[in-house]
Amino acid sequence: MRGLEDVTPQPTITISQPKETTLRKPIEAEDVESSLRVEDSEKELIRKALEVSEGNRKEAAARLGFSERTLYRKIKEYDL
Questions:
Q1: Distance in angstroms between the alpha carbons of the first and the last residue of the chain
Q2: Number of domains into which the chain is organized
Q3: DSSP for 6-67?
Q4: Which residue, among 36, 44, 34, has the nearest Cα to 80 in the 3D structure?
Q5: Average pLDDT of the residues in 27-56
Q6: pLDDT of 32 over the 80 cut
Q7: pLDDT at 48
Q8: Domain span including residue 54
Q9: What is residue 38's predicted lDDT score, i.e. its pLDDT?
Q10: Would the pLDDT of 2 be above 60?
Q11: Which long-range contacts (CB under 8 A, 24 or more apart) does 45-54 make?
Q12: Per the domain annotation, does 18 fall within a domain?
């Protein structure tokens, strides 16, 4: 039989309660308008990158931090 001095204490596991989550607000018309402005800004950035790189799509994609494939897709999407 083992004495108390031979018993190794086991680590204590603490379980915390999950944090309260907040519900997301519904999408407002203002949010939609804001996203349209983001698209307009992106179009303009793509136009400028193509202009600065003299139409070189590979260089423009690198300047924008896009892959070439993403740039091609966005050019098609925005009809540039």
A1: 84
A2: 1
A3: GPPPPPPP--PPPPPPPPPPPPPHHHHHHHHHHHHHHHHHHHHHHHHTTT-HHHHHHHHT--
A4: 44
A5: 84
A6: no
A7: 95
A8: 30-80
A9: 84
A10: no
A11: 46/71, 46/74, 46/75, 46/78, 46/80, 47/80, 50/80
A12: no
- Is residue 19 a part of any domain in this protein? no
How many whole angstroms from its chain centre is CA 5?
Answer: 55
Q: Give domain status of residue 36, yes or no.
A: yes
Predicted TM-score (pTM) above 0.85: no
Mean pLDDT confidence for 42-67: 95
Does 1 have pLDDT greater than 60? no
Look up the CATH number of the domain holding residue 64: 1.10.10.60
DSSP one-letter code for 4: G
Inter-axis angle of helices 57-64 and 29-52, nearest 10: 130
Residue 44 maps to a domain: yes
